[in-house]
Records
---
Amino acid sequence: MTEGIAKNLFPSSGIISERRLTKSVERACQAFDEKNLRFTKLRREVFEEIAATHNSVGAYDVLARLAEKGTRLAPISVYRAIDALLEVGVIHRLESKNAYFACRRLDHTPGSRPIVLSCEKCNAVAEVESEGIFETIDRVSKGASFEPRVRFVEVLGTCRNCASKKD
Ligand SMILES: [Zn+2]
Ligand SMILES: [Zn+2]
């Protein structure tokens, strides 16, 4: 990986530009089309809240942000929308935080599994790819007669922005 790509993974502003957000909404819409599923208004609204930031977002944050905008929903509606977004693969669930983030690598190789880098200080999230680590997990698991179910690997740490900040 080049230094240029590494830099872009953690932009200094956690906010996604309007243009990028529009683009990721378009891609999400396409992903739903490809699976013959409907990208309903609610699914789109929930996706926009999650995709509007580089950080991971909890279901209750989504609920609160939509309420601020005048859309009051029952938690179950938000969870159902989140389930649909997860199924199509446009968002991922961060197990360690029970939070969600928009997939930033929709144009990557289909079926490849990401390594998720998650900053413990600012909650920024980035995805990188390395099949090697999954091959190792599969191999050592099978050696232990264990069937692994690993969709991605989470790595907790400190992003470049937080590392450069003085406390
Ligand atoms: Zn992804
Ligand atoms: Zn950070």
---
Amino acid sequence: MNALTTRTNPSKCNGCNACAKVCPMLVLEVVDGLARAIPGREDKCFRCGHCVMVCAQDAMRVDGLDPSDFSEALPWGFDANALDRLMQSRRSVRRFLDRPVDRTLLDRLLEMSATAPMGWPPHSTSALVLTGPAEVRRLTTVMRTGYATMDRMTRNMMGRAIFRLVAGRDDWAALRDYVLGLTREANEVFDRTGQDKMLYDAPAVILFLGNRTCLSFKDNALLVTQNAMLAAHALGLGSTMIGLVPPIVERSRALRRRWGIADHQVVLAAIVVGHPAVTFVRVQHRRLADVRYV
Ligand SMILES: Cc1cc2nc3c(=O)[nH]c(=O)nc-3n(C[C@H](O)[C@H](O)[C@H](O)COP(=O)(O)O)c2cc1C
């Protein structure tokens, strides 16, 4: 890791110690009323920016973090019930109006998704946005072919044994018990009616890609994805996470090349996005599988 320098503006710092207290890597200390990096610990800084965000005097700077990326936090007083209402009312939307999603809305959604935490800053997650029916339909076609091929290959014992070996026990069980049946049906519906039951004729699809060289890149991408779905809902859009997308795009050389997905990038999640053509008038109180306090 690069040696980083945490810089304190001596004319602003009042030695309050807030930065030293918040630093998760114990990089900072206050000496003679002034915050400074502890000699020898500077390279432990991982650029979380907390020292900058906690400094009421705006005295802290961290090399590599752009000061213009920081702005005043809104005064606390957030309504937890409003957040609960937002989260309760988010639904997986699978019916969309035949209307494109404005680029400004998609930009805003992605900006909001980037508020997610990450194992080690900065973000390791990238977004690839497919807009327009041609690119979305292209993905549907590759998915339809991919799942039909898997279905055919696993019709005999030999094929099933190979899949079990390659996919591993858990992934094979999911494929056998859920995925193959669902995608077979989706392919049948498509052949009969032209209806897309994989991507729901969505006007936009967002793929979230992780950088495999980064710490916790899979978890990072899933957290961004959840934020993106909540942001979509807050912006009046509908979305659904489509677990059927990553295994197909991940293995499609043609799509990876076409969409410029680099070798170090792993396709980890995908959501369809559009203007909802369905209104949910009820919410369901759901519980976790189990809650125990010990
Ligand atoms: C990991 C994951 C994968 C999913 N994959 C699909 C999918 O391939 N197709 C689909 O229609 N919905 C998919 N969903 C949406 C779920 O079916 C949906 O979240 C669930 O039924 C609960 O409904 P809600 O999102 O409206 O609360 C997926 C959700 C998750 C979390």
